[in-house]
UniProtKB/TrEMBL annotation:
<feature type="domain" description="Reverse transcriptase">
    <location>
        <begin position="1"/>
        <end position="126"/>
    </location>
</feature>
<protein>
    <submittedName>
        <fullName>Uncharacterized protein LOC106013906</fullName>
    </submittedName>
</protein>
<dbReference type="InterPro" id="IPR000477">
    <property type="entry name" value="RT_dom"/>
</dbReference>
Amino acid sequence: MNAAVQATDVYDGFERGEETLIVALDLDDVYNRIEYDVLLRTMINLKIIPQLVVWVGEALLKRRVAMWLGNWTCDTRSITPESLQGSPLSPVLFNIYTVGKTSGQLESLGRELSFADVVLVYRQTG
């Protein structure tokens, strides 16, 4: 959807004789910078199903791992909370995390379009 919005804006600006200045940002290591209390509070404020909020919280904050080989299994251990880098869940959670910043992105004078860790900021001038 963001690509369609940007393409339409650039085309419409071209038709009006305007130039479009675009800044594209790819945020580095952004999934590891999420504040989990803010994410979970945002999920609650968005009225996301409480069971899903609990599931996400436990998946991120109470992660336990174990190794097994054949019939042998080691004791489970807790690991340090961090995002699920490379997981399909990470972009979705980051979009939820940043919803307060990006919710008005289609109504502003310039545009800020984002999906996960990619942000496009642009403005048209005559």
